Amino acid sequence: MSMQAKRRADYLPPAFTISDVKMDVRLHPTATRITSELQITRVSDHSQHLELDGDNLSLVSIKLDGEIFEDIEQREDTLIVRNVPDTFTLTIVNDIDPQNNKALEGLYLSQNTYCTQCEAEGFRRITYYLDRPDVLATFEVTLHGDKAQYPTLLANGNPVARGDNDDGTHWVTWQDPFPKPSYLFALVAGDFDLLEDSYTTTSGKSVKLELYVDKGKKSRGIFALESLKRAMKWDEDTFGLEYDLDIYMIVAVDFFNMGAMENKGLNIFNSKFVLADQRSATDEDFFNVESVIAHEYFHNWTGNRVTCRDWFQLSLKEGLTVFRDQQFSADMTSELSNRIKHVRVMREHQFAEDASAMSHPIRPEEVIEMNNFYTVTVYDKGAEVIRMFHTLLGEDGFRKGMDEYFRRHDGQAVTCDDFVAAMQTATDIDLSHFAQWYSQSGTPVISLTTMFDERKQVMDITVAQHTPPTADQSHKVPLFIPVAFDCIDENGKHYTDVDGKIKDGVLLLDAPSTTLHFTGVESPLIPVVLGNFSAPAKVNNNLSVEQMLLVFRYAKDAFNRWDAMQSVYNWCIAEFEKGQGEQIDDSVWNALSDVINNEADNHELLGECLVIPTFETLCQTRQRVDPNSLNSARSAFCDAFSIKLASVLKRVFDSISTDSYQYDQRSVNARRCKNVLLNHLARTEHGDSLVRQQYAAADNMTDTLGALKAAQGNLPDAFEALMQNFESEWNVDPLVLDKWFGLHATTERDDILSQLSLLKQHPQFTINNPNRVRAVMGSFAFFNTAGFHRADGAGYKYVTDYLLELDAVNPQVAARVVTPLTQWQNYAPAHQSLMKAQLNRLLGHKGLSRDMFEKVSKSLA
Ligand code: 0A1
Ligand code: ZN
After folding, report:
1. CA-CA to 127 of 20 to 30 Å: which in 605, 711, 815, 837?
2. What region holds the Peptidase M1 alanyl aminopeptidase C-terminal domain (predicted)?
3. Would you tell me the crossing angle of helices 701-711 and 687-697 to the nearest 10 degrees?
4. Percentage of the chain surpassing pLDDT 90?
């Protein structure tokens, strides 16, 4: 297995291309036979042999233009076919073993369903191929399988023929007319319940919609199908993009490494992102289903019709598609809570990644295992970069740029530079400096310094940027940053600068620093920056807590108001860290009480504003964190908050009426606000009865889970009793039970490690299912601060022991769960050395996967 890194700079076009593929697949649990007939043409010089990718395949035979061909060499990951003509047909027969494929890449069989996952490099585990995204071919696929066990046989495109054989098997042939790279190949065989619908596009084309789910789960698929139709309509209205095949299929499977996959015409989904009903799914689950359904659908244009030239360009499709799904979700639900949700992801996870040894630009330069680069940087920071294009070009300009992108590149495999060039046609702003966002990693810090001259009534505000060096890049350049900029005085009057550097509320910062001048200023101004999170940056604003509260009161931008509250909490927690929590002035508590009172009817804003920043977010504004003292300070603040504000919290809690369950934005906001309030009230004398009442009365999973979360850590007896009740109700439904696994794994208690061992022995737990592993070990490593960061290092060791076992089964999932360990740089020296000791154990392990090797070795370099 090669541990060699590939570099973006070394890209070479393929020496051969494949125009058409005819595949015949005879399904068998341990010996599925693949016959693939490839039409191959040489596209570069004559001297080269054909080198096909292949991984874990048993070659049976190979023919060239119908004749047995023996001038071949099998190497570890490749098959070399020597001395081939310029155009020819290659027919390859090979066997694979889907049942023992626990890595869930390529073709695998789990729970009696065959399915595939080919992105990024999984097709080479099915047959020998030029498994790279810049080789585009049409596919015709015939599947054969037992008719009783696998009545449904699916592949990409349209079904064109089918038949039965005498031996109890049947077959179906599928044709996909759109040339595609191998990573978009898919097949499925199983026995499902089917939901059917149809959609007529604006131009009048009728599309069949099919959603395949586990038997008995049909009613839980309705919301996903409705979401799909909303996404289809939205893409037509917003970007003029219609669906292109006659049929669109979605299959929900229980064993899946990621969220979902956009295979042409045949999306495969983790059932977590399809199945949802009021009883089993929370409001957040409903939201996620709709956004993932939309994300995969939107890929049909941004990813499939226009695809990536090479994997370094992954953000070309992912950043753009995440931005599209965010815009869609904002339109379907609410702009503010969506924006806050995404900013939380950036601050909790992306900033941490950028500050770690895995730091990389949204277009990485160097990759050992591509699966490691499906990251928050490529996806979420990538989407932030697209959002900045949107800010710079405006709604209409962005649409024009997108139209130009499709006009130029439909049917092609292209680069991020091609995207920028298409966008450039729609604006006078020179985008070459802006394009540095593709090559520079790290989080820029925007610092503000102010100079006030009371006599002259003028104020200068200097806005400076600085990107600290990262593990992958020591030298940084100033970026082109759109900084949404507002300025207020203590009475809430808004000011803009005299030179007009701020245009339409945005300062385009393209230098290391710039100074803004303000006149007619009677008292010092308060800069309010990065409204709506206009750039993926940190801000150093040095505001006093009084000024933060003024920002909350007077800022026009709702995101800025929410953010000001986060800063207030951050400041308070810092006081508790210094042991001065008790001295926080009454004026601060009174101001917080006023906020709650004044916003009591604004459930959306209040719900968000009452969420105390997580431990992970707090880490991003601190260095060399002692996890246990920060965690305790946070918890002490939460206690003080709920006790001091108990009466107003309770009053607002009682004022929110929740009728019978509806999934609409008004009710979602009300439930969210109520559950956030319950979380605080759980720390008060009312806690036990409120939590038990809500659990007993709940007619939906949002309130059930809200009660459990409130009890967790605050009310051990209620928690124990309600968790037992929950388990007995949902024991038969592992997808729902994952919530229970996750709650147990994140509970801070002294015996958490033995609790984890019990969870791993639970009849519903299996190391083979990524959802279970994430619910138990992922939740613990990412979110159980006290347990994972135990001072004796036992939490780190526990996770490492498990990772050694998991890596042999599913390296991709293991390499995700190892992330918190690799981010040791953030913590105090004693923790650093305990974490590194475990990373060294992993690195020394014989047979470590390439996935783990890359992350662990980088983190120790
Ligand atoms: N392209 C999919 C995500 C995905 C990526 C890799 C996978 O396996 C390694 C699976 C899915 C998306 O963005 O939804
Ligand atoms: Zn995607």
Report:
1. 815
2. 546-861
3. 160
4. 99
Nearest CA among 154, 108, 127, 106 for reference residue 53: 127
The kind and range of the H/E element at 843 are: helix 829-843
Q: Is ligand 1 within 6 A of the CB of residue 257? A: yes
H or E stretch covering 452: strand 445-453
Instruction: Report which protein residue has its CA nearest ligand 1's atom 12.
Output: 261
Among residues 805, 841, 803, 844, the alpha carbon closest in space to that of 820 is found at 803
- The finding on whether 269 has its CB within 6 A of some atom of ligand 1 is no
Residue found by looking up tokens 């019990």 in the block: 758
Q: Return the ligand number nearest the Cα of 302.
A: 2
DSSP 531-587: GGG-SS-EEE----HHHHHHHHHH-S-HHHHHHHHHHHHHHHHHHHHTT-GGG--HH
- What single letter denotes the amino acid at residue 748? E
Mean pLDDT of the chain: 98
Cα(521)–Cα(499) distance, integer angstroms:
15
- CB of 497 within 6 A of ligand 1: the answer is no
- Return the sign of the alpha-carbon dihedral for residues 823, 826, 831, 837: positive
Q: Please tell me the distance from the alpha carbon of residue 97 to that of residue 107, in angstroms, as a whole number.
A: 8
| Predicted ipTM of the assembly | 0.98
In short, whether 184's Cβ falls inside 6 Å of ligand 1 is: no
pTM to 2 decimal places: 0.99
Q: Whose CA is nearest to atom 8 of ligand 1?
A: 119
By C-alpha distance, which of 58, 62, 110, 55 is closest to 82? 62
- Ligand 2 centroid–CA 580 distance in Å is 46
Spatial distance between the Cα atoms of 811 and 175, rounded to a whole number of angstroms = 33
Ligand 2 being an ion, which residues bring their Cβ within 5 A of it?
Answer: 318, 321
| Residue 577 clears pLDDT 90, i.e. is over it | yes
- Number of the ligand 1 atom closest to the C-alpha atom of 812: 9
Q: Is 296 a catalytic residue?
A: yes
Whether the CB of 262 sits within 6 Å of ligand 1: yes
